[in-house]
Prior knowledge:
Blueprint: H1 2-7, H2 9-38, H3 40-54, H4 57-61, H5 64-77, H6 82-114, H7 119-170
Amino acid sequence: LFDFINSGGSITWILVGMNVFGVSLILWRLFVLRDFKKKLDAEAKLVATAISTQFNTKSLLSHLELVKDAISQRVHELEFGMNTIKIIATTAPLLGLLGTVLGIYEAFQVISATGLDDPGKFAAGISYALITTIVGLIVAIPHYIAHNFLSGELDSMEIMMEKRVGPLLQGE
């Protein structure tokens, strides 16, 4: 594995570092969201209590936007790290493409310097190009999937919070 990564050069090591950081962030976000989901009823009560102490409940019911804003603010706190996951998902294939271009450039430099007499030197540049492309995609795809999954989970939690806070404010 280390030989494979080393064959991809410094760009591959950058991608590996991004992957380690990103996967750690994804796992952390999954645990935070799982924990929040377990405490959803308690969180809804906290939001309802905070809203009802700040505003008159009867006037609040006519201003549902205040409820949605309070819930949105609470869910927004759970979005920490999502942009980083998205950045990794979008920049990893670009770094892989950069490695591809550099590898192809290296291969053409070898051809222009030595001709096609030694295919092994030419193949090293092509190998570099392919390895960085592969690693860039290996890093990007799971981060893209995780970002979409976590975004969907956050959206569904926001909807669940809205469904739970409303009845609490009405005293049900």
